[in-house]
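[stage:ingest] chain + small molecule (pyridoxal-5'-phosphate)
[stage:ingest] validated
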Amino acid sequence: MATNPSLTSSWLDEFPARIAELDRAHLRRRRRVVLPESGARLQVDGQSMLAFCSNDYLGLAHHPALIEAACMGARSFGVGATASPLVSGHSAANDTLEQALAGFTGLPRALYFYAGYATNIGIIPALVGSGDAIFSDNLNHACLIDGARLSRAQIHRFAHADLGALETALAQSPAQRKLVISDTVFSMDGDLADVPALLALCERHDALLLLDDAHGFGVLGPQGRGCLAHFALTGARASPRVLYMATLGKAAGVAGAFVAGSDAIVEWLLQKTRSYIYATAAPALLASALRASLQLIEHDEWRREHLQQLIQRLRQGLATGLRGSHWQLGPSLTPIQPLLIGRNDEALAVMEGLRERGLWVPAIRPPTVPEGTARLRIALSAAHTDADVDQLVQALTELAAACQPTVAIG
Ligand SMILES: *Cc1c(COP(=O)(O)O)cnc(C)c1O
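[stage:predict] done
[stage:export] tokens:
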């Protein structure tokens, strides 16, 4: 192999030092090897743990009906889709699923993707480009941000939920095509975007509204139909200005994502989305499992009721348990319950304290969340029991008491 003798050092030798730098800043991420047990329990690196980190909000990922449907799908269609959708990968199962998703969300047409990340990084550049403008909430998910960057449109980021700032930016923009992008349930905070107000601004400024309902689909609205149903923006109040996107690997318990909206816009996306056109279609067995999942999402109201009751139980328990602590539970009514700790090392220490008690709650640090807002992201699921939540509240109460400097009152 030819080497350049004048090279005394190469940037390739810097990686160990760069990793050590992440370690020093408490920013090094680690994977754990997991095996599912029962309920919300997981074996993590060989140890049985009660997990509060799954996005399987309705507890469907291990449901026998989904497993059976996936097996049936594999028997009928094989395991791999063998080609991209516009070649020969668009199976009858995927086609039926798209119709079911459109019907379920009450929108004219849906396009089914293999992943949510790929959906957002693909559809945004298909909608807008150089000379156009994107308006993006500061706390949007990474794939909305990356999709915006890939589009080469001008990006205006507005402070989280600051609709006044959004309105000003929309009014000042000379761009002919304007696209507003927002999470509906913010993934690290659990709070809900004011979708009707966003839509009203889009109407006023002739903008298209792309909503990412990754954490709302299956959870929000009557029968889990998502954020549009939650805000009664379906049926006669549905707007052709809304492009609705949701993932199917969270509450739906399977994998993939879809985008739904007006016939013309969805047709355009089918023509122009590179991450759709140049990738192998999702396996049909997943579409089969997703059909079964949609049935359960629609009919098992008890899953959402149980989940809501767990959310209330956690919030009431921590309101008492964390009194006097600087740890703060964010104002969330969704299964994502952020416990703000502040410093990275403290958040990691709390996560470690929980781990020692057999509880797994992930610490989320910058750059995923803003500097100084390291937190535990508690995710609840219908797979949890009351006793599971009580165990977490008890452990956090003990850790908070041990962490806080005792302050004399009086
Ligand atoms: C998880 C998530 C995605 C990505 O979806 P995948 O199917 O996991 O690729 C997109 N947007 C938001 C808000 C998410 O939370």
